[in-house]
Design goal:
Blueprint (H helix, E strand, L loop, with lengths): L7 H18 L2 H9 L3 H10 L8 H8 L11 H4 L2 E2 L2 E2 L12 E2 L3 E4 L6 H8 L2 H4 L9 H9 L13 E8 L5 E11 L4 E8 L8 H16 L4 E7 L3 H9 L3 E12 L2 E11 H4 L22
Parallel strand pairs: 7-8
Antiparallel strand pairs: 1-2, 3-4, 4-5, 5-6, 6-7, 8-10, 9-10
Helix pairs in contact: 1-3
Length: 297
């Protein structure tokens, strides 16, 4: 490959940004691993420019690189010294949605105290909770979740989860909730889950909302791989995962003692490069095929 030299000013800016981010966000082996992923020509440019680089001004670099540290032209390595699946290796990924997240018929938004009654209507039902990792909830449990786990409105690091209510835009009804888990920063892995009030089944709401979660995970957070884990007996959730375009990768027979019974788990997954074929799949009218759809496990 022909080596393309960078102008001294751009090389200096990239070098300063690299050193600043590596020093602030990662250490040791992780830094070496990330540096090794840069194209060889950029490694050479960074090395040659580092000897006389001036002190780094973070705001100056943000203005230079574009919004959120991304390049004005995502195809140009010279702007940010490397992109991984749409996410700069120097700009650590994060998800800060602008709410509500809109689909053609739904609004995905944080849950509030005003939603307690609607949440209680389905999360208290034994049939909804049968194959999911929680027991029927009462008002106290829901209030505790609203004040803790469900209060998160952004994902800034692995190990966090974002739960959003699913509201029908036309009526204002809260018909369910969905969750996006961020499992790994290094491997850029995540997971989705969904739960729907059976009284609103048959309209495709769960599929539409779960598709919006994939968009948040892949397009906004820059995840490489998203999974859904479903109890095999939860046929509706498995069908939903397949409608989204997720591949069934595993069937784990009796892998977990779940609520007093051995549970067989179905594992579904989608990769970022597969997502492109499904990004606009549900942009028009949705198929009315959702049935009782508890959350994926």
């Amino acid at each position: 490959m022909r080596r393309s030299a960078l102008p001294r000013g751009e090389a200096d800016a990239i070098t300063r940004a690299t050193l600043q981010t590596l020093a602030e966000r990662i250490t040791g082996g992780e830094a070496r691993d990330l540096a090794a992923q840069l194209p060889k020509e950029l490694q050479d440019d960074l090395a040659s420019a580092s000897e006389d680089a001036e002190p780094f001004d973070l705001e100056e670099f943000r203005a230079f690189a574009g919004p959120r540290g991304q390049p004005d032209d995502p195809s140009s390595w010279a702007r940010t010294a490397g992109m991984m699946g749409g996410v700069s290796v120097y700009q650590q990924p994060e998800l800060r949605p602008v709410f509500p997240v809109r689909t053609s018929r739904l609004l995905l938004r944080p849950l509030t105290a005003a939603d307690v009654g609607a949440l209680l209507a389905y999360r208290s039902r034994p049939d909804v909770c049968r194959y999911v990792p929680f027991e029927p909830m009462d008002r106290q449990v829901i209030n505790e979740r609203l004040a803790t786990h469900w209060a998160t409105t952004e994902l800034t690091d692995a190990g966090q989860a974002l739960t959003l209510g699913v509201e029908v835009a036309e009526t204002g009804d809260l018909v369910g909730d969905v969750v996006l888990f961020w499992h790994s920063r290094v491997h850029r892995g995540g997971e989705i889950g969904y739960v729907l009030n059976p009284d609103f089944a048959g309209h495709g709401y769960a599929t539409e909302a779960a598709h919006a979660l994939l968009r948040l995970g892949f397009d906004d957070l820059g995840l490489h791989r998203i999974v859904a884990r479903v109890d095999e007996r939860n046929d509706a959730s498995a069908k939903l995962a397949r409608r989204l375009g997720m591949r069934q990768e595993a069937r784990l027979v009796h892998n977990e003692l779940f609520k007093g019974e051995w549970s067989t788990e179905l594992d579904f997954a989608m990769l970022a490069d597969e997502w492109a074929a499904y990004r606009d799949r549900f942009s028009g009218e949705r198929e009315h095929r959702d049935t009782t759809t508890p959350i994926a496990r």
